[in-house]
């Protein structure tokens, strides 16, 4: 898989995707997001891939959508092409587990991309923000919606209206990131988490992910009902039999993804 703006490396069953436009702080050009969407299509159907880690470099996860590309676009340009939904949202609809490993800047579309992953592990150097307001626009890839669900209205308003950045400690405190680690441990931590998930039953992991995501889309009672249906359906899987038998027999389960 050869891409101009991405690097892809397999670590066992984990695909490590590195955003690779370092000179532009990984600004998310249409070419980059199209490549990411194409790559995710391939990874989703590849049985050798159980999970994905998305990362950038020491200085930037991604400093946002590419402002130099966007600056001259007209209303009709963005409206007609429905900029930006399809290629960006591919990550949000990816069915396998995804972890964002963030060091340095995750701004604007970079923060939005990280929030489309299932969870975010941050280096102590990470800085998150939705600075679009400072360049005369607003977040356009789910920032106002996902950030609000992550950190609540007051903090989301603060970030979106002032455009300020939030450091990694604040991001952990308010629930934007799940783990905060020293920068030099970031990739090891993210790959270990993804590898742990990759050892588990793939269909059960997908059901768990689908069920948590449902919490953002529905009422509590409907969500609980949805969860119960998926919970019941795990009992149709050989992996549920294996998992519980292994517990009773005091051995490690050998899941077969069936
Ligand atoms: C295009 C970018 C860029 C971006 C950085 N660069 N961010 N190019 N789009 N979003 C480029 C710079 O132009 C520069 O290129 C090089 O990367 C290094 O950046 P510097 O600014 O010189 O670095 P530094 O002084 O360290 O400042 C880092 C920074 C700053 C604070 C992150 O680059 C910055 O404010 N970037 C923009 C952040 C932003 O507003 N993001 C939101 C974008 S709008 P040259 O060629 O000059 O060396 C958005 C909307 C999403 O994301 C909507 C949904 C799709």
Q: Could you explain the architecture of this structure?
A:
This protein starts with 5 loop residues before the first strand and ends in a 10-residue tail after the last helix. The chain has helices at 30-44, 67-70, 75-80, 85-92, 109-116, 143-151, 153-162, 168-173, 186-198, 202-214, 220-234, 238-248, and strands at residues 6-11, 14-19, 51-55, 60-62, 98-102, 105-107, 119-123, 127-129, 165-167, 179-181. It has a six-stranded mixed sheet, with helices on both faces. Helix 1 packs across helix 4 (85-92) and helix 6 crosses helix 7 (153-162). The protein is of the alpha/beta class and 258 residues long. The mean pLDDT is 96. It has twelve helices and ten strands. The site of hexanoyl-coenzyme A has 20 residues, from helix 2 and strand 6.
The quaternary structure here is single chain
The fraction of residues in strands falls at 15-25%
Count the strands?
10
Question: How many helices?
Answer: 12
Return the average pLDDT rounded to an integer: 96
Chemical compounds bound to the protein: hexanoyl-coenzyme A
Query: Regions with pLDDT < 50 over 5+ consecutive residues?
Result: none
Q: How would the global form be characterised?
A: globular
Series of secondary-structure elements, N-terminal to C-terminal: EEHEEHHHEEHEEHHEHEHHHH
Secondary-structure content class: alpha/beta
Protein name: Enoyl-CoA hydratase
EC number: 4.2.1.17
Family: Belongs to the enoyl-CoA hydratase/isomerase family.
GO molecular function: enoyl-CoA hydratase activity
């Amino acid at each position: 898989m050869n891409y101009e703006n991405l690097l892809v490396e397999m670590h066992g069953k984990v695909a490590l995707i590195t955003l690779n436009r370092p000179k532009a702080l990984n600004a998310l050009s249409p070419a980059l997001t199209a490549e990411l969407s194409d790559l995710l299509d391939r990874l989703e159907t590849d049985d050798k891939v159980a999970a994905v880690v998305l990362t950038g470099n020491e200085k930037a996860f991604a400093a946002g959508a590419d402002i130099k590309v966007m600056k001259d676009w007209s209303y009709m340009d963005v409206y007609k092409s429905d900029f930006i939904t399809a290629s960006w949202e591919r990550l949000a609809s990816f069915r396998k587990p995804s972890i964002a490993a963030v060091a340095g800047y995750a701004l604007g579309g970079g923060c939005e991309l990280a929030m489309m992953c299932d969870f975010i592990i941050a280096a102590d150097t990470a800085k998150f923000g939705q600075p679009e307001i400072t360049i005369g626009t607003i977040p356009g890839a789910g920032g106002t919606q996902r950030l609000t669900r992550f950190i609540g209205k007051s903090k989301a308003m603060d970030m979106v209206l002032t455009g300020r950045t939030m450091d990694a400690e604040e991001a952990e405190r308010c629930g934007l990131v799940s783990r905060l680690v020293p920068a030099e441990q970031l990739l090891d931590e993210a790959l270990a988490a993804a590898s742990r998930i990759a050892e588990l039953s793939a269909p059960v992991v997908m059901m768990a992910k689908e069920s948590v995501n449902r919490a953002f889309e529905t009422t509590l009672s409907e969500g609980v009902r949805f969860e119960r249906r998926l919970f019941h359906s795990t009992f149709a899987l050989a992996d549920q039999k294996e998992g519980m038998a292994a517990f009773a027999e005091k051995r490690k389960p050998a899941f077969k993804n069936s």
